[in-house]
Amino acid sequence: MGERERPASVATTTRRGTPALAMMWFVAEENRLWFHTPEGRPAPFLDAARHHREVAVMIATFAPPDDVRQVRVTGPARLEPKDLPRIRRIYERYIPEWTETWAAHAASPDALLWSMAPERGMAVAYPDLGNTPAFRWADVAEYARIAT
């Protein structure tokens, strides 16, 4: 799997406080992680975005012993206006070819665009499964500095 095809593990809690976890396609742009999610029930990630609740995201490579890398971030989610070019960029990271079917899916009123701002996080690498220092940050300015 190439870096472009790597999904994100996204976690939040439901309104009842139970954990929710999903693998999602994403794109990283403008110091945010962007997602496109169908609006059906249950929709804990869209609920989190509607109410600006925090979500946690991990993007990882796990191919021991040589390649174990993780970026873990947390921050508030929010719903975004429909942005078809951005939605297309999300899907183009994962699909081999843009088709009319994908275009219709991207434009569907049954799915919403949402994003999260990674306010806190850490990046770690474990070459040969050895312990190495973790890089941690606790504000957006620090994240923006390492993300560029």
Low-confidence stretches: none
Dominant shape: globular
Total E-strand runs? 9
SSE-based structural type? alpha+beta
H/E order of the elements? Answer: EEEEHEEHHEEEH
* Major beta sheet summary: 9 strands, antiparallel
Mean pLDDT across the residues is 86
Determine the N-to-C terminus distance. Answer: 23 Å
Beta-sheet strand percentage? 35-45%
**Radius of gyration from the CA trace?**
16 Å
Provide the helix percentage.
10-25%
What is the count of helical runs?
A: 4
Briefly characterize the structure.
It is built from four helices and nine strands; from the N terminus they run ββββαββααβββα.
Keywords:
single chain, 148 residues, alpha+beta, nine-stranded antiparallel β-sheet, 4 helices, 9 strands, 41% strand
Write the layout of secondary structure elements.
Layout: E1 8-13, E2 19-24, E3 27-29, E4 32-38, H1 44-50, E5 54-63, E6 67-79, H2 84-92, H3 100-107, E7 111-116, E8 120-125, E9 135-137, H4 140-147
Antiparallel strand pairs: 1-2, 1-5, 3-4, 4-7, 5-6, 6-7, 6-8, 8-9
Helix pairs in contact: 2-3
